[in-house]
What does this fold into?
Amino acid sequence: MTPSSSAGWASEVDLTARARPARPGGARPRNARASSLYRLVASVALGSLLLAVVGAVTGPHWDPPPLEEGIEVATPDTAIGSARQLPSHEVRVVDVSVPLDGASVGARLSLPLDLDEPAPAVLFVHGAGTGRSTQAFRRQAQALAEAGVVAMVPDKRLDTYTTRHRDYVAMAADYGRSLELLRDRPEVDPDRVVVYAESEGGWIAPVMAAEDRDLAGLVLVSSPVVPPRQQAAFAVDSYLRNTGVPHAVFRAIPRAVGMTMPGGGFEYADFDVTRWQQRVTAPVLVVYGTADASMPVVQGALQVRADAARAGNDAVTIRYYEGADHGIRVGGRPTPEFLRDLAGWVRGLPGTGDAAPRVAGAEPTQTYLAGPVPQPRWLRDGTALLVLVVGAPALMLLGAVAVGVARVARPAGGSRARRDPERLPRRFAPGIAWRLAALGGTTVATVGALVWYLLAVARLAMDYQRNAWVVQGGWVGVRVLGISAVLTAVLLARRAHDARDAGVPLAPGAVRRSAALAVLAGSAVLLVVLAYWGVYQLNI
It folds into this structure.
């Protein structure tokens, strides 16, 4: 007899036989195997259902309401008033420096030549994707200057601007310094200065217009209007719908957008520009492209018009450009019609501020409302979620390392240990060790697959592309891995039950017992996280 058998260790077959004695006479039920398979399938289904329930109760659902209010477009012709024929000037470019509190930024001026008198001017406010005067708004500034409008593009102040921290009111004050410098230029009529804001700048420029009643006009191009968190959720929803993701993936929107980010910050996500827009008395030009899926193109225009009305301001002109994307570009360039209309509107102020038609261009489409994002109830803290996702695999790895070290550091005196079974290193019950490893491996693999899938879908969504193999096939793969993790947990539970029935210790010794608990605890945490992100959601 071998030492292992003398120590009471049995094979998995022997363990099963000890746990499940044969029927009298050695006969086995004819349907025993089918019954066992049925119980296995039922257990996996029940475990998946329980995780689906956990996922449903640990976070909000995503079901944005439809946008019921529309906007009436009077004509497809976007030309504003009688501003169709524009002059043509040579342009000179001058770089200047703008002093700020504790810093300075560069700025580029595009000056029309051969002016007979001081000209109107436009100050540009950057969106989130731009920051340098030499790289942004070049075509807009050139078109304005050729039409006889001074254009100034300052650098964005970046020492106080990060991904985590942005202060739009303070940014408005910094751009105000550029506004002062522009008004002081001899080429500029200080009473005819307009602020042009694009994208994120739409949360900055209304602050400037509310605080500076001397502005001649405000141009809001691809403006979000709603708070950043709401706009982000709206954009993600729109992108995902175009990408064709399964319904369960939409659960990630309120969980990702609604939670606090790891490490804090992002307070600006709930910045609401409404109270500043309701103080704007200058004429406003609102511009969107019909191919811009990231912005609430109908709701935004309606909100700006309603906010301006609160200040007694009905001089709001709205234009939609067919096929134009964010920034009113087609093929990467601002559309010529937009550049013409922009220059005409600025040159014609104040007359063009209330010129008919008020709403013109292509018919816009917005299906859903950009509104408040439901807040997660349990895992809203992004730091805690990150700790769970990283800490659970680390805990399992630590347990595996501890077992490995314990096996290497077994007692010396090999021949004595072989003669004395009590000196043999203790082991997991048969079939327990590999099932524990499989449980930890499948849960970690499923989390990794889910992260890969969400990143891949995000990349497709941002490029506004479809890929059924990634979107549909990838989600099926993630769910199959998730079900495999449940199956592994059921197999482990059944083997543990057999070992207890046979009187065999599952994980003898403190090290193995702790390692087993680490794998079970880490896997349970990851299964809950997977359920939270919709892997086990019933409707796919």
Q: What stands out?
A: The first helix runs from residue 3 to 6. Confidence is low (pLDDT under 50) at residues 1-10, 412-425. The first strand starts at residue 91 and ends at 100.
